[in-house]
Amino acid sequence: MNGGRLKVDALRVRYGGVTAVEDLSLTVEPGTCLALLGANGAGKTSTLRGIGGLESAGGGIWLDDLRLDNLPASRRARAGLGHVLEGRHVFKSLSVAENLRVAAARAAHKPELDPLDLLPELRPMLQRLAGGLSGGQQQMLAIARAVAGAPRVIMLDEPTNGLSPKLVGRTIEILADLRDAGFAVLLVEQRVEVAQKLEADVVVLRHGHVAHRVRGTDPELPDLLQAAYLS
Amino acid sequence: MDEFLQTVLVPGLADGAIYGLVAVGFATLFTTTGVINFAHGQMVMLMPMSVLVAVGAGLPVWLAYVAALAVMVVVALTVEWTAVRPFVQSGQSASWLLSTLAVSVVLAELLAVPYSGESRNFTYGVSKHRFDLAGLAVSPAELTAVAALFVVAGLLVVFYRRTRIGLELRAIADDLDGAEAIGISRARASQIATVLSALVAAVTGVLVASTQLVTPSLGLSYTFYGFVATAIGGMGSIGGAVAGGLVIGVVSQFAGVHVGSLTVNLTVFLLLVVVYVVRPHGLFGAAPVRAV
Predict the structure, then answer these.
(1) pLDDT tens across B18-67, in order?
(2) Transmembrane residues, as ranges (chain B) (predicted)?
(3) Which listed residue, A175, B94, B168, B226, has the most CB atoms within 10 A of its CB?
(4) CB-CB: which of A54, A75, A103 is closest to B177?
(5) How far apart (Å, rounded) are the C-alpha atoms in residues A100 and B268?
(6) Closest-CA distance of chain B to residue A93, Å
């Protein structure tokens, strides 16, 4: 079984005196997808970075029975928290193969899902430098690198940002594959159609607080989002 | 021609090898952490000074070397914790410049304590007595310095390209957030890079002490020459550090012999200015890639 259960209780992220996220609780079960939607500045990225340990955060974070919130980011990752960062953050001076190898070397065990089976389009470019790939190829590499680390939960921050419509469709396929493989998928998105196609549970954020919790298939979702964006 | 080889090239390359080793030490830390340790020159002098103190305390020479290496590692980890780690890949150059300079001053003062700042002869290194090699008078210490530069640089290149830890250090250098997100520890990477840099400083220190008196104030001089070599070669480039060191060694020796000893510093820093005007990122440094 690939997946684990991510539970976040009363997450709080602050930058100096500015509160980015307040009292956010959520649970992502294995084999499901939860999408955080909201306008720019709603606290979506801060939520993922707080859970991942890249920003200091208050509240409780558990991966199954393991409490993560007192661990540094690197140990959270090794415990099984995969994180595809906004902006890809691939290692540009390393080859594609080296990007995957360095992630696999830190994994607690061999991944049950081979990242190159999930993303076979990377096979022909294994020896290319990551810095020379297109934005879409770098996004695919960022997802593959997270999978190479044998995570049980995968957090993805706007994976479709800046991609062509064709690649957005491909990214949705990959996310569905991850969910169907048993991973718990926590997704930050701007495109509501991604959450809808993945039939994800949706948390709409507004000013760092939970505004709504709905199903991605809920016909009211676009209206709720519009209200959140315009508030 | 023979005179040029004997008076400029041989001593210039030997000195340059030392500057190159100092620059390699800088590059080793800078590559991973983005921090230039201005206390590196003091670390260079810490090694022979520690050996001298240990031998003076009655330890056999081999054990004194072991003890000195242990001191180097402990001091390096302390420097890393206090002056390097808070600024890993932070881009806060003013902060790490001040933190490492502060450590440099503290170490310089501590290095002066054992012998009240006086110079000491170091007889536990490589012989500096010259012999004839193909018509040139060279010493084992000079040959060892040049060989050490290439061996150390070569080993580091292999380490970065072929080992798992080397790959992780390169990953941290490329993208700190991306590296932490896949489980690479910033603290551990910073510690490894600092200890590696300290081991390079240990080798450098023994070679420095083999050719001249051990003087605490030498550390600052090597810091600045090593920095110039690093800057000329290109920040973070091992190959650039080697080339920069050798260039500085030969140019400074040429200036000292043919222009005058008072012009050595002037020439070296003028060279730095010229290189920065012509190639702002150094001879081997790469310009940052701008996304379009």
Answers:
(1) 999 999 999 999 988 888 899 999 999 999 999 999 999 999 999 999 99
(2) 16-36, 65-84, 96-117, 137-160, 192-210, 222-248, 255-278
(3) B226
(4) A54
(5) 44
(6) 7
CA distance B19 to B146: 10
Dig out the tokens for B279 from the structure. 């190639």
CATH 1.10.3470 at B2-114+141-278, yes or no: yes
Structure tokens at A185: 């998928």
A182: tokens are 């048993």
Q: Where are the domains of chain B?
A: 2-114+141-278
Torsions phi, psi of A23, nearest 5? 55, 50
Between the alpha carbon of residue A100 and those of residues A111, B57, B100, B184, the distances in Å are 12, 51, 35, 13
Q: Is residue A159 part of a domain?
A: yes
- B168 in reach of chain A (CB within 8 A): yes
- In angstroms, the CA A22 to CA A11 distance is 6
Pair of tokens at residue B139: 């010493």
What end-to-end distance do the CA atoms of chain A give, in Å? 42
Chain A residues touching chain B at CB-CB below 8 Å: 52-54, 72-75, 77-78, 82-85, 89-94, 98, 101-103, 105-107, 131, 145-146, 148-149
Q: What is the DSSP letter of B91?
A: -
